[in-house]
Amino acid sequence: MAERRHTAAGDVDARRRAVAATWDAGEVIAALADDSWRVRKAAVDRAVRWHDAGEMARALVDVLAATDDVGARNAALEALERLGAPAVDALVAALEVDQPHRKFLLDALGGFADPRAVPALARGLDDPDPNVQVAAAEALGRIGGPAAEAALLACADRSGGMVQLTALDALAQAGAVVPATRALRWADVPVVRVSALRLLGNARDPAALPTLVAALGDRTRRAREAAIEALARYVDDGATDAQRALVARELRALGRPAVDHLIEALAARQPEVRRAAALLLGVGQHRAAVARLAELLGDPDAGAAAARAIDAMGPAGHRAAATAPDPAGDLSDADFAALAELLRARCGLQFERDAAYLLRRRLAPRLAAVGAASFRDYVRLLQHGPDRERELDAVIDAVTTNETYFFREAYQLRAFRDEILPTLRALRPRGDRLTVWSAGCSTGEEAYTIAMLIVDAGGFDDWDVRVIGTDISSRVLDVARAGRYTANSLRSSDLPELRRFLRRTDDGTWEVREAIRDLVVFHRLNLVDTRAVLRMPDCDVVFCRNVLIYLDRASRARVVASFYDRLTAGGYLLLGHSESLVNVTTAFEIETLRNDTVYRKVG
Q1: Percentages of the chain per state (helix, strand, coil), in multiples of 5
Q2: How far apart are CA 396 and CA 392, in angstroms?
């Protein structure tokens, strides 16, 4: 490899222009090692546009297999990832022979959501070098799927130490459902205990409950937090009523030390732990935690779970939360009524008087931000202040509930992929347009899930596909556009085949792959603003899940009427499992599918 060839030839701009125009593959490869990141970037862009993708992929793989230059290696990795399928073929072929830098080849393969990589990675689990085994296990975890999980399970059974730990970690991160009998064996091994506890959460097996409940009192914080997250899997949206009942009985019988550990976890650094702890305290009816739960209401990540926990405790929970000390001061009946009316008029949100503590807690930071001495002053600012419009938007950001995650309510998603999409495809000519609206998309997981389902269904490659995510909160839309998520957003183990559309990053977060992001756009939209909704394009499917329940009756009717107007003839409306159109409208036809019951526009 002719390293640094461009470094001495002209200034940076000249070298960059030269590599952008070259037809010499060797020039492109040499430029990957240039001192300037601009030249390296130009080389990556040229490699991705090369006329023979297979030829370029093989040359890039040679860089990974032969260089110790970190900059060149990273540039080659970026180019390979952007090349896609040809890169997988080249990497797999390179691993057929002994490679001194085979660890880097395995790392690169893990960046692709391609099952063709699994056999080569599985062979890497038998490599004599433990570092290579670890790289193979991490890569298999990023790809996921039955074949990858089977290879990781076999590796965990025969290995020990760091290799076994990595294999179990990869299984847990991939959402693999491992039989509880196997995971329970590993739960007694200190080095892999945390990973085993996470796998027990994926299993949702009653046989695992005694071990998970006992782990709430573990001497190590990491094991306690893993048990908290695992137990939350038994009571969250994907759990059955029987699972929730079993866990509720166990949680109500907890001793004070375990309850104290749960309360302590409300201050955990990881948002998914805070959320899980709040959920468990609510299921266990532990009113000793109400004051701490009330403090958590302003948490953008766990506030919704804290509100659900207080709700689960009934009137007594609401009374305790209302009387909990609050540095922002009291919210009088008159000020609450004024705030509630402002929110109802602005976006249709309704708040009952027993939820006044929620407004008080979530708006306390806003009082501090604008320098209001009391809620009375703050209400006056919202009614008459020069920045009232902007501040009211900030209020909506603060009080809206943003509880969402990937693959939520999987039965409905299967109805969309396996029944609705084939119906729409059969009714339209090839190359038509498909538009799906995620209304109230929050941080974007639903919109991206919809795009994944469309790609996974197949048959839409030559269609103009658009998924539109809208929300009234600018804050959550910023998160959605970034497309990076914590493990909390992947807490559902349903639809594991869709995880291939997500990429694990070096900092442990998950990033939506570019092919999915290209199908999705996000816009700020107030669903109650009929004139704004009229600017939306005609849609084939509207997802509006767990939004209508927060609106007053008049706003619900207005929003649903807007959906009807925007849907094409024969279009579908999908609501949350606790929502219906009873006493809202009779305009839609109810259609019972194999996987779900949905609403359809007659036409």
Answers
A1: 60, 10, 30
A2: 6
Task: Count how many domains the chain has.
Answer: 3
| CATH number of the domain encompassing residue 501 | 3.40.50.150
Find the radius of gyration of the CA atoms of the chain: 27
From CA 154, how far away is CA 201, in angstroms rounded?
A: 20
Shared domain for 449 and 415, answered yes or no, is yes
What is the mean predicted confidence (pLDDT) over 248-255?
Answer: 88
DSSP 74-124: HHHHHHHHHH-HHHHHHHHHHTTS--TTHHHHHHHHHTS--GGGHHHHHHH
- Using alpha carbons only, what angle is made at residue 425 by residues 419 and 431, rounded to the nearest 5 degrees? 155
Cα–Cα distance between 256 and 156 in angstroms, integer?
Answer: 36
Q: Give the number of other CB atoms < 10 A from CB of residue 179.
A: 12
Q: Which residue, 355, 373, 352, 353, is CA-closest to 364?
A: 373
* 13-55 pLDDT per residue, tens: 888 899 999 999 999 999 998 888 889 999 999 999 999 999 9
> Is the same domain home to 424 and 523?
yes
Q: Which residues constitute the domain of residue 416?
A: 410-601
Structure confidence by residue, pLDDT tens digits, 105-141: 888 888 887 888 999 999 999 999 999 999 999 999 8
CATH code of residue 357: 1.10.155.10
| DSSP string of 295-342, one letter each residue | HHTT-TTTHHHHHHHHHHTHHHHHHHHHHS--TT----HHHHHHHHHH
Beta bridge partners of 541: 436, 572
H helices within 402-482, ranges in order?
410-415, 421-427, 445-457, 474-482
Output the pTM of the full model. 0.72
Domain match, 352 and 453 both: no
DSSP state of 500: G
